[in-house]
Amino acid sequence: MQDFHYNALPIDVYFGVGRSSQVKDIFLEQGYRRVLVITTSGHEEIGKELSDKLGNISRGVYPHAVMHVPVEVADKAVKFVRDSSIDCCLALGGGSTIGLAKAIALKTHLPIVAIPTTYAGSEMTSIYGITDNHRKTIGKDVNVLPKIVIYDPELYLTLPAQISACSGMNAMAHAIESLYAKDKNPIVSMMAIESIKAIKSSLPIIIRDLKNIPARQQVAYGAWLAGVCLGSVGMAIHHKICHVLGGTFNLPHAEAHAITLAYSVHYNRNADIRAMDKLAEALDVRSREEIGLAIYRLNRSLGIRMALKEIGLPEEGPDKVARIVCDSPYYNPRDYNYEELKGLLGKAYEGVPPV
Ligand code: NAD
């Protein structure tokens, strides 16, 4: 066995159906008394319901989170929080909402309690992103790591099929890339395999039956594990490609992840053989050659749009993305090959199978 370093994240996690309704007790236990609920404008009503449950310890709802945390939105929120003597931010929503809470915590060091409603996994990481003038700066800071995360599968019931599918595959991407991370370790790899199996088995059930609580529980469980993977070890080529797709071409985050994953893992299929054999087993395929195709077929069965051109990548995209990825690569267990990547991204652009 390879030597490793494992660093557990100091987050209290509560998981269970209806758990978010006990949020006031959790806050009181932790000594928080002036809580600001943060949401997007679309989630303001659910935010108000939660704020009502908090009663006298709520300082109301701040419904101004938007995608990619624009710096102006972050600055305004920081000023609001400083002027209101808040002692904790409660982020209720997906990665965009948790992203705004992180931007506030970065400047104010206020604790975050997160109640995620998508499978993106931001709640389990100390990674933040802020967008200034169309450029997203990513950083790591322990102050943005939520103190408490509450997973309540009931809150995902309203997540539409398309978002559920893409967000679930976004989570699977975190788990998969952690298997061949530079700083991989046995605990995180175990979590990753468990996550992949939970998502693979239950995401198709959700798409057929959005209100299926056991399936929602399983995918939330898989997303939690995937979030731990993302927060614990470094990511590789797939995340690099997706950061270019999002940063340079403004493609939607979860959909870009979902579509591209089949091609990134096909590129890496023979790079870290032990990791990829484990992945093949988790996906229930006979060989590493079939991994990319298995993910491609899973996406199709989930009704995910299959082609990058359908979600806004221009024709010159595959060439440009391959070039940027090769010019400023992340760690990857396999070298970056521009021609091969361009070819695979060309297939992702058209939505044809990776093999
Ligand atoms: P999001 O938060 O923008 O949510 C996607 C859509 O789902 C939105 O339209 C939202 O209104 C809707 N939605 C959310 N929950 C819902 C629910 N329960 N019912 C109905 N609709 C609901 O997107 P996301 O994919 O969760 O997060 C993406 C963002 O998070 C990106 O900016 C990404 O960079 C960031 N992110 C950061 C990290 C990190 O570690 N820092 C990790 C993952 C993602």
Can you give a write-up of this model?
This protein has helices spanning 23-30, 44-54, 71-83, 95-108, 161-179, 186-208, 213-232, 237-247, 253-267, 273-283, 291-301, 317-327, 338-350; strands at 12-15, 35-40, 58-65, 88-93, 112-116, 127-132, 135-140, 148-151. It has a six-stranded parallel beta sheet with strand order 1-8-5-4-2-3. Helix 12 (317-327) packs antiparallel against helix 13. The protein starts with 11 loop residues before the first strand and ends in a 5-residue tail after the last helix. It is α/β, with parallel strands linked by helices and 355 residues long. Helix content is 51%, strand content 13%. Nicotinamide-adenine-dinucleotide binds next to helix 4, strand 6, helix 5 and helix 9. Nicotinamide-adenine-dinucleotide binds at residues 40, 42, 67-68, 93-97, 99, 117-118, 120-122, 125, 127-129, 155-156, 158-159, 163, 167, 230, 253-254.
Strand and helix map with partners:
Blueprint: E1 12-15, H1 23-30, E2 35-40, H2 44-54, E3 58-65, H3 71-83, E4 88-93, H4 95-108, E5 112-116, E6 127-132, E7 135-140, E8 148-151, H5 161-179, H6 186-208, H7 213-232, H8 237-247, H9 253-267, H10 273-283, H11 291-301, H12 317-327, H13 338-350
Parallel strand pairs: 1-8, 2-3, 2-4, 4-5, 5-8
Antiparallel strand pairs: 6-7
Bound molecules: nicotinamide-adenine-dinucleotide (NAD).
Nicotinamide-adenine-dinucleotide (NAD) binds at residues 40, 42, 67-68, 93-97, 99, 117-118, 120-122, 125, 127-129, 155-156, 158-159, 163, 167, 230, 253-254.
Content-based structural category = alpha/beta
Strand order in space, largest sheet? 1-8-5-4-2-3
What are the bound molecules?
Answer: nicotinamide-adenine-dinucleotide
The biggest beta sheet reads: 6 strands, parallel
Quick one: how many beta strands? 8
pLDDT average, as an integer? Answer: 96
Taken as a percent bin, the fraction of beta residues is 5-15%
Count of helical regions: 13
> Low-confidence stretches at least 5 residues in length (pLDDT < 50)?
none
> How much helicity do the residues have?
40-55%
Order of helices and strands: EHEHEHEHEEEEHHHHHHHHH
Radius of gyration, in angstroms, nearest whole number: 20 Å
| N- to C-terminal distance | 32 Å
Globally, the shape reads globular
